[in-house]
């Protein structure tokens, strides 16, 4: 199986089904859907088994925490590994690990050797595999289709999961009713094998990395720094946490509503989740039209309102058929919100840091689910189920106000390809990548009338310097010649500064050009590089500095 970097044929209009024109995406999507069916069967069986093994609503709600908490703990390391190590090999490991864990749990359940805490423990292990797998899986999508097709590929990944959500719970509920949850766990273990086989035969193109290789700790710091100094990403993360925290009430307590409030069987619980999945699949087909009329921000607002209604309905309505309709609408809202978050994140970051930023996004999402499940489950135990769901609805309603300070902006038109427009500094000798720290100074000549506008543009450039690796950034004017303004930024090592060169995108280049337009000197702004003297491995010394001068 091979991949193509360009759209096949004479550039037809991109639609929801365009990603299927790429054979490797198609194969991985089908295998992933089979695996997702197994996962949703597992979720239903695990939650229902714990529901029958204990009388504690908190332990039942902790099943969601056991699934989500590993992502909170492992998402960042997984994202760093996905950007540093061969993603194909990592996928083979994670799929194999989850297959083994699910099979062991199935065998133990069939032999009668499980308890509520035991199911929680194995669910936690599966969550660890999923936490390591998810950032890699999402980042891989960017390698399978070109950028114009990516939003539809992300939507189809959501469709895959929700088709599985529609099918899996019904199959899982039927197997539980007629056989045993143990068989569900065994089938889930087998479902991972198809994905493992497709990934094994995938001939992934080798990614060439420019600049010195990053180490694991440095990669973690770079990912966190990128998020910290990217307001658009930061805003998505705040909105994601608020939504997942409130939505956790539905995910964590719907089984309790079916079993304790409505006094119905596991089959009804499975059908509830099936309606949710069917709504999400329907939502995928509505997204094409919604995309032409609604921005990502508007989609998220509608989704939050829908989930406010979901929590209210679960608290107040006792007619199961009405709740089926509510879950269908909730499925549409869920897909609308989650694809809006995920697409915005993936379109807003360059490839070098993509998996790390995705891992931060998933960490925040799963943290909201984990903490929300714990809070709403605890409130259900100490107050009442209805009170907990009503409070969750209130949270969702209030969270709408976050759209004012944290609006979501479109990222479809961003050009995040590496600019590669900085020539390497001319040096008198070879410099070890671990030598440092490094100070870069850029001298501008700016007329006083331009200072306010220059300062505004320079502040935006300052954020980019910090985002791409600088530890400190500043602007100073010469007291003897105030029109001479010097920008400096301080970097830990020479290797990190070399990586800065390759991290700068074409979108960033436009901002840098805006700053340079204020320069009124006879030649280009002069750039100087200073390296700590003597050349020690990243040790700051209070001694004179060696000067390296170059024009980037």
What does this entry look like structurally?
- It is a single chain.
- The protein has 552 residues and is mostly helical.
- 66% of the residues lie in helices and 6% in strands.
- The chain is built from 16 helices and five strands.
- Strands 2-3-1-4-5 form a five-stranded antiparallel sheet.
- The longest helix has 31 residues, at 23-53.
- It is elongated.
- The two termini are 42 Å apart.
Main traits of this protein?
552 residues; mainly alpha; Growth Hormone, Chain: A; Alpha-Beta Plaits; 2 domains; 5 strands; elongated; disordered N terminus
In short:
The chain has helices at about 25-55, 55-85, 85-110, 115-145, 150-180, 180-200, 215-230, 230-260, 265-295, 295-315, 320-345, 355-380, 385-400, 450-465, 495-505, 505-515; strands at about 440-445, 470-475, 485-490, 525-530, 545-550.
Q: According to CATH, what is the class of the largest domain? A: Mainly Alpha
One letter per element, helices H and strands E, the order comes to HHHHHHHHHHHHHEHEEHHEE
| Strand arrangement in the largest pleated sheet | 2-3-1-4-5
What is the name of the CATH topology of the largest domain? Growth Hormone, Chain: A
Average of per-residue pLDDT values = 81
The CATH homologous superfamily name of the largest domain equals: MFS general substrate transporter like domains
Gyration radius (Cα, Å) is 26 Å
For the largest beta-sheet, the strand count, sense and barrel status come to:
5 strands, antiparallel
